[in-house]
Amino acid sequence: MQQQEDRQFVTALARGLEVLAAFRPGEGALSNQELARRTGLPKSTVSRLSYTLTRLGYLQPESDGGPYRLGLALLALGTAALAGYDARAAAAPLMREFALANNVSVSLALRDGSDMVYLESCRSQARVSVQLFTGSRVPLATTAIGRAYFAGLPPLEQQAVLPLLAERYGAGWPALEARLRQACADYQADGYTASFGEYEPDVMAVGAHLPALLPGQPAMALNASGPAFAFDEAAMRQRVAPALLALRQRIAPIRL
User: Fold this and answer.
1) Model's pTM, two decimal places?
2) 56, 125, 206, 247: which has the fewest Cβ within 10 Å?
3) What pLDDT does 127 receive?
C-alpha cells in the first residue's frame, strides 16, 4: 500500500523525520533553504518543521531562524538505539584489537533500506586510514560490507531486498545486480566478499557476514578496509581476508 493511501501513515511525522535525515556525518549547520533542497519539501513547510524540532530539542539553531545543527535530544535517542544491539558491545574490543594488529579499519554494520549503517568502527593508528565512523551510511550493492550482508542472507530474505535496490539504481541496476550475484558466488567459494575501488577508488575492502547472535536481533556484517596505496588486492585476499574470517569466528560464538 502506498503511503498516501495508508490511513496509519502520519505524513507530518514523516516530513519531520526527513528533515532530520537530511543531515550527514561531518557536516556543519544547515539552513532551511538547504534542508528544503535536500528533502524536496517547500521551504515554508521546512521552516515550520525546523521550528517544531528546535522546540523539542532535536535541532539546535546557531542563530535566530537558523542555520541548524542536530540537537542533543537525538544523542539520547542514538545512544538508546546503539545500546539495543548486543553484538556491538561484544564485538567492539575484538575489533579494536584486530584494527591495531592488521593496520586496517574494521567496521560492523546492519542494513537500513538499500544502505548499510555503521554501528561500530575502529581504525588503526596509521596516519592514513579509511575515515568512516559510527552512523556512517554506505550503499549495500557496491561495498564489501553490504555484499557480505546480502550474500549471507537466506534466499527469501535476499529476494525481499532486491526490489529496494532495483528502485534505487533504476536503469543501472542490471549491471549492479550481476556484480552482486557474482559477489554471492565468491562468498560461497571463499567465505568473504570484496570491493576493490568500486565504492571509493582509493579504498580496498573485504567483508564477512555476521549472523544474528541472539533471537530477535538482525544479521549484520563486518568489513576490513585500507587505502589502495598500502593494500593491493593480493594483500587483501591473502592476509586481511583470512584475518577477518578469524575475527568473525571469534565474535559469532558469543552469547550474552
Assistant:
1) 0.74
2) 125
3) 45
